[in-house]
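Memo to structure team: turn this sequence into structure tokens by end of day. - J.P.
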Amino acid sequence: MRLLRSTDLALRVLMRLAVAGGTTPTTRDVAAAMQVPYTHAAKVVAELQHMALLEARRGRGGGLALTDKGRTASVGAVVRAFEGDDDVVDCEGGAAPCPLNSGCRLRGALRRAQEAFFASLDPLTVSDMVAEPTGPLLLGIPRPA
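Reply from structure team:
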């Protein structure tokens, strides 16, 4: 299973904001630090704001700040929200549904594997993800010129 770029970025944004201290980086700052296009970062930030995991304030003195809910958010819940709950494979979709669909055991096995993946992430919080040594490493990422 491979995470969508938006899921990866959402987790990295939350982690970066978890170690921001009293600073409030802007979406442009985060995009530059993560070396992603601003428009992509803005979409992810908007979704995280909609989920009440971060606050975004405009204007002078504005920027992004992690909410209490964001700090304690389950990594599994964030990944589910961005990845969706669809099956790993689309056995019924497309022009030609799988001919094994009525008796296939693979679909169930893949669903269980997907749930095990999410379940392994459920107990982890954003705060857990920035514990030593990750937090200091995040702070040490140089900003591109």
